[in-house]
Write a structure and sequence with these properties.
Number of domains: 1
Order of helices and strands: HHEEEEHEEE
Mean pLDDT: 94
CATH topology: STM4215-like
Largest sheet: 7 strands, mixed
Protein name: DUF3168 domain-containing protein
Structural class: alpha+beta
Radius of gyration: 16 Å
CATH architecture: 2-Layer Sandwich
InterPro entries: Gp17-like, Viral_Tail_Comp_sf
Helix content: 25-40%
Low-confidence stretches: none
Strand content: 35-45%
Number of helices: 3
Number of strands: 7
Distance between the termini: 8 Å
Length: about 140
């Protein structure tokens, strides 16, 4: 039976980040859609991209996902520290996604902190992760 792991995987990512005590102490929340006026810093679960693959016996998905942290700290320090906490939370134990088998997870290259586009805007930290999942 073909099905996507997107929603169960997003719930697993949210739970992993939201339940990490060190990260939770430093942010105002983890969000799919950030509420208007939410104070910085916070984590936003960005958009996934799914590439399906099949073998003779299984159907799977290759899912790169982008996570963002936004900080109004004057400089890159806080966003960089929060990216480190996110990495630690995401890698501290094997992944469990209800109804699916995660056979590979990794942090992708190109983690970065972007300067604000204009004065008064937040710094943005970008963390790219990738899952390989079988149904």
């Amino acid at each position: 039976m073909l099905r996507t792991s997107l929603w169960p995987l997003q719930q697993a990512i949210y739970n992993r980040l939201n339940q990490d005590s060190l990260l939770k102490q430093r942010i105002s929340g983890v969000f799919d859609k950030v509420p208007k006026g939410k104070p910085f810093p916070y984590v936003h679960i960005g958009a996934p991209v799914v590439t399906p693959f099949e073998t003779k016996t299984t159907f799977g998905e290759n899912i790169p996902w982008v996570l963002h942290v936004y900080s109004d700290y004057d400089g890159k320090k806080e966003a960089s520290e929060l990216l480190n906490l996110m990495m630690q939370a995401l890698t501290k134990e094997p992944w469990v996604v209800e109804g699916f088998k995660v056979f590979k997870f990794n942090i992708e290259p190109n983690t970065q902190v972007l300067d604000p586009a204009q004065a008064g805007m937040p710094y943005q930290g970008i963390l790219r992760i990738r899952f390989h999942i079988n149904n």
